[in-house]
Structure formats: C-alpha cells, structure tokens
Write a structure and sequence with these properties.
With 264 residues, the chain is of the alpha/beta class. The protein folds into two domains: 2-97 and 209-261, Rossmann fold; 101-206, Rossmann fold (3-Layer(aba) Sandwich), CATH 3.40.50. The protein has helices spanning 17-26, 48-64, 75-88, 101-107, 119-123, 125-134, 148-153, 160-175, 192-198, 209-222, 242-252, and strands at 7-11, 32-36, 69-72, 94-95, 112-117, 139-144, 180-183, 204-206, 235-238, 259-261. The strands form two sheets. The chain has a six-stranded parallel beta sheet, sandwiched between helices. α1 (17-26) crosses α10 and α2 packs across α3 (75-88). It starts with 6 loop residues before the first strand and ends with a strand.
Length: 264
C-alpha cells in the first residue's frame, strides 16, 4: 500500500537528525529513511551545482527504495536544490527547510534578530527573499558560523572548543541588541543546551524542525499517504564513516541503530 511506503530524509550530515526527531514525534507511524552526506559536509561551503548534484543522487536513492515523500532537512540544500527536485519529481511531496525569519520577526521585542547559519544559506536568493518578505520591520544581523557543523559532526556538543567557537559567533549578536536568535542550520538545535548557558533566558532560540514535521503531515494527509500501520525501524546511511555516525546516534537520535555506507 502506498501509504505504508517510507519517507526519505537527508542532510549534509547528522544535523538533520534534529528534524528526524520532530518527524518521529509527530508521525510515529511513518517509516523513515535517513541519509547523512557526511562525506561532503559541510554543504555551506560548497557550490550550488555540487549541492544540486548530491541532492539528486540522494533523491534517486530514496526513490529506488520506494519513498513516498522527501524531506530536505538542510537549509543549504533547500536553497540550492528544492526547486529542481520539485520539477524533476512532481509526483512526490517534497518538504524543504528555511530559516525561521517570520516567527523570529514576530517574537522579537527589541526589534533586532540574529541569524546563525552557514555561508551558503546566508548567500542564497531564498534567504534574501525571506528577509524582504518577513523582516522589513526588524533589523536582522547575520552571522556565518564556519567550523560549527564540524564540531557537531564530531559529537562535541559541550566541549571547550565548541563553547569558544559558538561564543565567538553569538556574543557580537547579543552586543548589538539581539533578543531572538534563529538557528538557521539543522545541526544547531543540538547546541541548544550550550547556547542556553551562553545567553540569558530572555533570548529566544528559534528553529524550524517542528514546522517541517507539520508541513510533511499536511502534504501526506492531502495526498492520502499518512501511514496507518506500524512503522518499520528507521534506517540510516552515511557517505562518511558509518561507524562514526553509529557512535553518535544514541546522543543525537536517542536510540542505537545500524548505519550503512551510502553507495554514492
């Protein structure tokens, strides 16, 4: 039955597990497939053409395994490739990510919003359009965060090197009056506990993982594709070191699982 087919979710690395957790929480009957393209992480420093090529390869991999929907759990991949994927696979519900500019603009009290994101996301036309559409009445300060994704990929969520790097990105935003921070990369929600040590309780931290899960639910429901039976265990692949991802899964996903090598 088509409604029992799996949903394919991918990211440049393990960051998309933050979105996968939200999908599992909202849609526990859905069977999930996850690809971490960790052999090419971070996408934020790669060209749009390269990211589109990787996104097409991973989409084909999911389709070969009968996926009924795709989720790009990566802001940079969404900016570079989601339009192409929707053109190429019009039969599939496809959900992308975008930085939470609209809810952040509504949440700020100081009128100053900070954005932590990759260079690729901040340079994209999609991000510029978000600012034009939703941030005309607030000041948005962007902060590229090179090196942060790599710390999370290594499983260093609370260490001194990660703390020093993150503080160096956050402190200038706070100094300029930001009271709302957008976590504009799916890796960054895993740093929320550390961020909460670095900023006051009055600073709002906003990401879009839960909104992506809700959008997936809406699209599946509209197409009559919501699963009604028992979900298969989530399956994982990595284009990097499967053993490294398998070791970090209990921390980032909450469960142990086998990770296979992504064949491409």
């Amino acid at each position: 039955m088509p409604e029992m087919a799996p949903v394919g979710v991918f990211d440049s690395g393990v960051g998309g597990l933050s979105v996968l957790r939200e999908i599992r929480a909202l849609l526990p009957r859905e069977s999930l497939l996850y690809v971490a393209d960790s052999g090419h992480v971070p996408y934020g420093e790669k060209s749009a053409d390269f990211i589109r090529e990787r996104s097409h390869r991973i989409a084909e991999f999911f389709i070969e395994r009968g996926a009924k929907a795709l989720v790009l759990a990566c802001n940079t991949a969404t900016a570079a490739a989601v339009a192409d994927l929707r053109d190429r696979y019009p039969q599939l519900p496809i959900v992308g990510m975008e930085p939470a500019v609209k809810p952040a603009a509504a949440a700020t009290r100081s009128g100053v919003v900070g954005v932590l994101a990759t260079t690729g996301t901040l340079k994209s036309a999609k991000f510029a359009a978000l600012l034009d559409r939703f941030a005309s009445d607030v000041r948005v300060i962007t902060q590229p965060c090179p090196g942060l994704v790599e710390r999370i990929e290594a499983g260093d969520l609370m260490g001194s090197d990660t703390r020093r790097l993150l503080a160096g990105y956050v402190e200038p935003l706070l100094a300029q009056g930001c009271d709302t921070l957008i976590l504009g990369c799916t890796h960054y929600p895993f740093l929320r506990p550390l961020l909460q040590q670095l900023v006051s309780a009055s600073v709002s931290l906003i990401d879009t993982g839960a909104a992506v899960a809700r959008q997936l639910q809406r699209l599946l429901d509209a197409d009559g594709l919501l699963a009604e039976g028992r979900a298969e265990p989530c399956r994982f692949w990595s284009s990097g070191d499967p053993a490294a991802m398998q070791e970090i899964l209990p921390t980032l996903w909450g469960d142990s699982a086998r990770v296979d090598r992504f064949p491409g």
